[in-house]
Amino acid sequence: MKSLNCRSVLVVLASLLLISGCMAGELVVVLSSATAGHDARTGKPVLNLVFTEASKERLRIFNADNLGQMVEFRVDGRVVLRPVIREPVLGVQVRISDPSWTDQAVIDLAQQLSNAPKGEIELRPSSSSN
Question: Is 39 part of a structural domain of the chain?
């Protein structure tokens, strides 16, 4: 019985730590890959991101908390991308598009994100509405 209570306390503490990191407004996730591609339906350039499985739940919570909002993707403290979250993220794969993007713009974004030290990308609600 004592080990069950201890295990329950550990689960609650781990959950609180996970949630508190997302509630603080910023989150560090680890990116597995960033590639440029094209939407099969429209032919427009898209940015395909795959995050590590370890980042999946934190990414899901952050995404749900910021649905409909502009967020910043930062590498080494520098804003690389400011998309608006339009739909829930349920897995580790994210697809981002912008009607104004060119093929080269998406290639450059993928490269900047791929070059993040240790694959770490900081996500935070955007302080700018631009």
Answer: yes
First-to-last alpha carbon distance for the chain, in angstroms, is 55
In the chain the beta strands, taken as DSSP E runs, fall at 27-38, 45-51, 71-75, 78-81, 93-97, 120-125
Domain count, the chain: 1
In a domain, 130, yes or no: no
pLDDT along the chain (130 residues), means of 10: 49 42 72 97 97 96 96 96 94 95 98 96 81
Is 81 within the bounds of a domain?
Answer: yes
Q: In whole angstroms, give the CA distance from residue 11 to residue 20.
A: 14
Domain that holds residue 59: 2-125
pTM to 2 decimal places: 0.78
Rounded CA-CA distance 104/45 in Å is 9
